[in-house]
From TrEMBL:
Keywords: ATP-binding, Carbohydrate metabolism, Glycogen biosynthesis, Glycogen metabolism, Kinase, Nucleotide-binding, Transferase. Residues 51-142 form the Maltokinase N-terminal cap domain. Monomer. Coiled coil: none annotated. Residues 1-29 are annotated as: Disordered. Transmembrane segments: none annotated. Its EC number is 2.7.1.175. The lineage of its organism: Bacteria, Bacillati, Actinomycetota, Actinomycetes, Kitasatosporales. Belongs to the aminoglycoside phosphotransferase family. InterPro entries: Kinase-like_dom_sf, Mak_N_cap. This is Maltokinase. SUPFAM superfamilies: Protein kinase-like (PK-like). It catalyses: D-maltose + ATP = alpha-maltose 1-phosphate + ADP + H(+).
Length: 496
């Protein structure tokens, strides 16, 4: 490979141990600092501090940044453009701030800003030193640089603590340009032609990300209900087990997103109140969910509920409710009823019920309808939960309850902007949700899953728990959607 041309915008490539070692000076015990990388990172930090809070995937919104500490910086391309992979710890002030969060950044540095990089992806111009005047930007939007990442995945490269890994099977083309996905998401994805999609996890925790862990388990079991895993990359973070940084999967080019399909059906209710055929799809989706659950139960650890575990399950729900009440005080009035619903779990004869690994954040946007049937995506679990919690075995019906919430969301979307103003439409929307929720549950049972109707207290508690999560999620990310889960809470509280 020819040496890239150098310019004022380059990143120095140092001998490998130095270039890919930890950078910065704040962490104790750091190895030798790579001067070139360190200089670049120091110049970039003020721009990163301004830009981070504007990103959808940034979890620290509303909390001032107390410190930004580079953890590992790895130059993946030198010259102009340069590509710097950076893991960065963000700390917040205050007594309860904790150790902070580590984020993954893929930074491009060029003397000229590329046309594909829009204003939201530009961090600014670097000032001073070797990089003076160069544009610093989110390289996810630069096809040349994301193409570079695919090359590393294809060759299974290693750069210091960064390892690129391939699954056995057909080789990967290393030369496809990547375009940034425009999907609304918690991480960032790059689509390579119509062949692959690379998800770059943004908030990084030590350990295997459940998305990789479960997708690999399902792939290895031969399941066609997920896009085949082609490669991933990871980093050993502060001497703990490797943290998953990115996941490359087959791109489902001929698939339709379940959320879009559902919205399309719901929108038609306005002009044509006939039922439509989404219930058939909902039934098939229920079957697909059951199939995935069966494989996960067969290939990954399971356990059984007993009194103590059930009490723990109910207690965790009550704790999540209490934190949610603090974040969204509007929930306070429902607290007694919701707590009572969780309490009733302990008397619900759940002993012996199997718990297992599950999807953890299932909704219509995570289901793609392909010509071969429904395929499920994104087994990461709820991004706000700590990784260890997301990996705990759960009642499989948790996923069912989450999907039921999604039908409710799709129906409520129809009423957005006109709440309570058109009772006829509200009735149609409610009937649509009820029909599809029932079809999904029937499909789930027909596919070998547990009948949700058999454990009504558990289903109600799981649905409440999800709606509570959604209240916090919407308050944080999409405040205008907050009425959707709040209406569900209101309705569910009335049934206790
Ligand atoms: N393999 C795939 N094929 C086609 N589209 C995909 C694929 N994986 C993800 N997508 C699209 O990208 C969106 C976001 O993906 P997801 O894995 O849910 O990311 P995140 O965890 O960041 O929210 C999905 O809703 C879907 O529209
Ligand atoms: O897909 P993500 O992993 O990013 O999940 C998060 O965002 C979802 C929204 O994009 C959010 O889902 C909620 O909104 C959906 C409609 O946009 C709805 O279908 C879901 O039922 C509802 O929970 C999800 O909760 C959040 O974790």
């Amino acid at each position: 490979m020819s040496e890239p041309s150098r310019s004022q915008a380059h990143v120095h490539r140092e001998p490998s141990d130095a270039a890919t070692g930890p950078v910065g000076t704040r962490a104790p015990g750091v190895r030798r600092t790579a001067a070139g990388v360190s200089e670049l990172v120091q110049a970039a930090l003020p721009l990163i501090a301004e830009w981070l809070p504007t990103q959808r995937w940034y979890a620290g919104k509303g909390r001032p940044i107390a410190a930004l500490t580079p953890v590992v910086g790895t130059p993946l391309q030198v010259g102009d453009p340069a590509l710097l992979h950076l893991l960065l710890r963000v700390e917040h002030g205050g007594a309860t701030a904790g150790p902070g969060d580590v984020y993954q950044l893929l930074l491009g540095i060029r003397s000229e800003q590329p046309a594909s990089v829009g204003p939201m992806a530009v961090l600014g111009r670097l000032a001073g030193g070797t990089y003076d005047g160069a544009t610093l930007y989110d390289a996810v939007h630069d096809p040349e640089l994301t193409g570079r990442l695919l090359e590393h995945l294809a060759t299974g490269d290693r750069f210091g603590s960064l390892s690129f890994r391939r699954t056995p099977g057909p080789g990967l083309p290393g030369n496809l340009p990547g375009r940034a996905s425009t999907a609304e998401q918690s991480n960032s994805s790059v689509i390579y032609d119509t062949a692959f999609i690379l998800k770059l996890f943004r908030r990084i925790s030590p350990g295997t990300n459940p998305d990789l862990e479960l997708s690999l388990a399902l792939s290895r079991a031969g399941s066609t209900r997920i896009p085949r895993v082609a490669a991933w990359f990871e980093c050993r973070l502060e001497r703990s087990e490797p943290a998953t940084l990115g996941l490359l999967q087959r791109y489902l080019a001929d698939a339709e997103d379940g959320w879009e399909l559902a919205l399309d059906q719901v929108a038609r209710l306005k002009g044509d109140p006939s039922p439509g055929n989404f219930a058939i799809e909902a039934h098939r989706l229920g079957r697909a969910t059951a199939e995935v659950h069966r494989v996960l139960a067969r290939t990954m650890p399971t356990a059984r509920l007993d009194r103590a575990r059930t009490a723990e399950l109910a207690g965790a729900m009550a704790d999540r409710l209490d934190s949610a009440v603090t974040a969204v005080p509007g929930l306070m009035r429902y607290r007694p009823a919701l707590r009572a619903a969780f309490q009733q779990l302990t008397a619900a004869h759940l002993d012996g019920l199997q718990v297992q690994r599950i999807h953890g954040d299932l909704h219509l946007g995570q289901a793609m309808r392909t010509p071969q049937g429904w395929v499920l995506l994104d087994f990461e679990g709820e991004p706000a939960k700590p990784l260890a919690e997301r990996r705990l075995p759960q009642p499989a019906l948790r996923d069912v309850a989450a999907m039921l919430r999604s039908f409710d969301y799709a129906a409520a979307h129809l009423l957005a902007g006109a709440p309570g103003q058109d009772p006829e439409l509200a009735q149609l929307a409610a009937a649509w949700a009820a029909r599809n929720r029932a079809a999904y549950c029937a499909g789930y049972t027909a596919g070998g899953g547990l009948d949700p109707a058999g454990t009504p207290e558990l289903m109600r508690a799981l649905e409440i728990d999800k709606a509570v999560y959604e209240v916090v999620y919407e308050a944080r990310h999409r405040p205008s959607w907050l009425p959707i889960p709040l209406a569900a809470i209101n309705r569910l509280a009335d049934t206790v």
